[in-house]
Amino acid sequence: MDALHLVLNAVTVIFIAATMFAAGLRATVPALRGVFADIPLLALALTANMVVIPLLGWGIGALFGLPSAASIALVLIASSPGGPFGAKLATGQQGDVVAGAATQVLLASLGSLTFAPTVNAILTAADTRAEVSLDVGALVRAMALLQLVPFAIGLLLRRYAEPTAQAWRPRQPPSPTSPS
Asked: Are 109 and 42 in contact (CB under 8 A)?
């Protein structure tokens, strides 16, 4: 079982880093500026991911009367914005990968700092009486190494070695609506 656990962890790390690297290969600095200048989009994304979804996690746990451990797990998951699947979902839906990845990196960056206070506030309000210990430093390091660094490397490669970035970029699948 330990070997399976190690393999699954390795696959997850590779998936996250490769996804963020590929998103960086598609990004440009002007495109990122455009995403970060869209204040209504950012406000909506931040509000949804840092307020609404954590409260929804708490509410679902309370609504279904989940046991303490399950309720805490649900709050922990719901309070983790910037999960690494946003860029992959944008790619799969042929959406704006740059906007998805940039928003994801922003959410992960801010979320690694707000995660502990958010979880602490919700668990205190929920009166779970459970001791939960979070290593915020480890969360920040993991987010930086798995999301920020690969995205930045892809972005820099795109900026300073365009032909290499184009060659390494994943091929876009044909659109279901486009003629073959």
From this structure: no
pLDDT in tens, 19-50: 888 888 888 888 888 888 989 988 888 888 88
Q: Which two tokens stand for residue 111?
A: 């979320």
Q: Comparing C-alpha atoms, which of 78, 94, 96, 88 is closest to residue 147?
A: 88
Q: Are 44 and 109 in contact (CB under 8 A)?
A: no
pLDDT digits (tens, 9 = 90+) for 147-179: 889 989 999 999 899 888 888 876 665 555 545
Q: How far are the Cα atoms of 147, 154, 173 from residue 94, in angstroms, in the given order?
A: 21, 19, 9
The domains located in the chain, with CATH, are: 2-166 (1.20.1530.20)
> Count of CB atoms within 10 A of residue 65's CB?
8
Question: 159-170: b or e for each residue (b if 16 or more CB lie within 10 Å)?
Answer: eeeeeebeeeee
Tell me the DSSP string of 120-177.
Answer: HHHHHHHT--------HHHHHHHHIIIIIHHHHHHHHHHHH-HHHHHHHSPPPPPPTT
DSSP 8-class letter at 171: P
